[in-house]
Design goal:
Elements (H helix, E strand, L loop, with lengths): L7 H12 L18 H9 L12 H17 L6 E5 L2 H15 L6 E5 L5 H9 L2 E5 L9 H6 L5 E7 L11 H11 L2 E5 L25 E4 L12 E5 L10 E2 L7 E2 L9 H38 L12 E4 L11 E2 L5 E4 L6 H14 L2
Parallel strand pairs: 2-3, 2-4, 4-5, 5-6
Antiparallel strand pairs: 1-7, 6-7, 8-9, 10-12, 11-12
Helix pairs in contact: 2-8, 3-8, 4-5, 8-9
Length: 365
């Protein structure tokens, strides 16, 4: 720590110099986060000092959290769903498994999940001492429901399906998994951190939510396709009071019990997430998603004309290709199977797709 403080101009010159080292979003094609919507930024700034970890001090902000849960619950066909705002999919997934373990205590608990799950599940299983039973994907890069059913036994506390896989943008057969979960009386968690703000706005939505009787919890991240400020995730539960199973005593706060994982929880991104949903509405979100899907389709078609085949036919706006390099300065990523991966987020405009295709073609000329 400096012995004497910096002048404000000097301080912000220093900060600005490091901000310039960050990658310009126009070249970021690999991220599932995007530039926040202007209304999210404005709402975030209004609530920067709020702490949902002590909600009695910020009752207005706590109301916004309840409204966000209600908006998303309604979107997922269950207006009366329970839940709370998390820091994102990792926390939501940890809490879902923590809840499943609490509600179904077993001596040697295990969970059944697709090999395509986000790496947060490995963290969760290490923290919670859960055995991971990984199901190999089918040729379509989705988890076969029948193979998942074969791994369920009396010690299985949770079955997991993914709605919008991180690497290939696929939606597991959640409807089939829901039936299996109901048959075995097993907790079904749907990781829709990415797809949750895409699938409901597609012209032909794929069933994945509380409309399916067997779905117990859903993770969704408004800071991804919901264009909120970071961090903004939500964990939703079918039963409004289900999370009470995780309560611990918090005697010196304005609430005497809490089930959340984090203590201090920022209210600002919650306000930002709600602001975007209420500002755009269903029609506005459909337009955003349609634009992203159009860009995804154009990218796939353009790569095909260059002789590069897609590695999968995605359900959401993630495109993958069987090639080994990409042109600078574009920032892409690679799947564990070595496929080039691009996420067509709202900040990835059609002119960016055309510029990437041109640069890619020039590189291979």
């Amino acid at each position: 720590m400096l012995s004497n403080g910096l002048a404000e101009d000097e301080l912000f010159s220093f900060l600005s110099s490091h901000k310039k080292e960050d990658i310009d979003h126009r070249y970021i094609l690999s991220s599932m986060c995007t530039l926040p919507h202007p209304v999210a930024i404005r709402a975030h700034c209004m609530f920067m000092e709020t702490n949902l970890g002590d909600p009695g001090l910020f009752p207005g902000t706590a109301t916004l959290e309840r409204l966000l849960v209600e908006r998303l619950g309604t979107l997922f066909h269950h207006k009366n769903a329970g839940g709370y705002a998390t820091s994102g999919g990792t926390e939501s997934n940890i809490q879902a498994l923590r809840l499943a373990k609490a509600l179904r205590p077993r001596t040697c608990p295990n969970i059944v999940l697709p090999e395509s799950v986000h790496f947060s599940f490995k963290k969760a299983c290490e923290l919670l001492c859960l055995e991971m039973r990984s199901v190999p994907l089918g040729a379509d890069r989705r988890m076969p429901a029948d193979k998942a059913a074969e791994l369920i036994d009396e010690n299985t506390v949770c079955l997991v399906g993914v709605a919008g896989t991180t690497e290939y943008g696929m939606v597991d057969p959640i409807a089939d998994l829901a039936k299996i979960a109901a048959q075995h009386d097993v907790f079904l968690h749907v990781d829709a951190a990415f797809g949750g703000m895409v699938i409901p706005f597609l012209s032909r939505p794929i069933p994945f939510d509380f409309s399916l009787e067997g779905v117990t919890t859903i993770a969704v991240d408004p800071h991804k396709m919901g264009m909120s400020t970071i961090p903004a995730g939500v964990l939703l539960t079918r039963e409004p009071d289900m999370l009470d199973a995780l309560n611990i005593d918090t005697p010196y706060l304005t609430v005497k019990k809490e089930y959340t994982l984090a203590g201090t929880r920022p209210g600002a991104p919650v306000a930002g997430a709600l602001a975007v949903l209420d500002y755009l509405g269903v029609s506005g979100m459909k337009a955003v998603v349609a634009g992203c899907m159009k860009n995804t389709e154009r990218l796939i078609a353009g790569m095909k004309t260059l002789g590069i085949e897609p590695a999968a036919t995605p359900d959401v706006n993630v495109a993958t290709f069987a090639c080994t390099r990409a042109p600078a300065p574009w920032k892409v990523s690679w799947t564990r199977n070595g496929h080039l991966r691009i996420v067509c987020m709202p900040h990835v405009r059609s002119d960016s797709i055309e510029a990437f295709l041109k640069d890619f073609g020039d590189m291979h000329a």
